[in-house]
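Here comes an entry:

___
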Amino acid sequence: MATITTPGIDELTLPNHPETKVWLKQRPQFGDKNRVEAAAVVARREVAPGKYATNSDDFAHYLSVKVVVMIHDWTVTDESGKRVPIVVEALEALDPEDGEFLSTEAKKRYDGVDTTPLGDSSEPSSITELNSPTPEPFESPASENS
């Protein structure tokens, strides 16, 4: 039987705004991956049979979606002190250093890099188990006869 579990959450502070907290998921969930894949499809368009082009604005959006889906919560506020929703436009409005920091940290978790501090656990992280080996290239039987 399938069990729905919430991924662990890591609390981070932004480098240029240490009073601001961001909580990142330790791994993506199925819906997170679907949102990112949908953004990737928009970013890559077939312009001719077998030829693809990437729109830079759409690709930037795809990269931002990959970060946004990993943010569980944050304390980012606007000039009036009102909490800002976790959306691509808000992420892209952050200070460049803070945005790059979040991007790096979110990508590590999304891509399955173990973010457990050394010495915290002798067990391998479940995050690393999400990575699957690269399959061997397929060779059709017809190519063996040539």
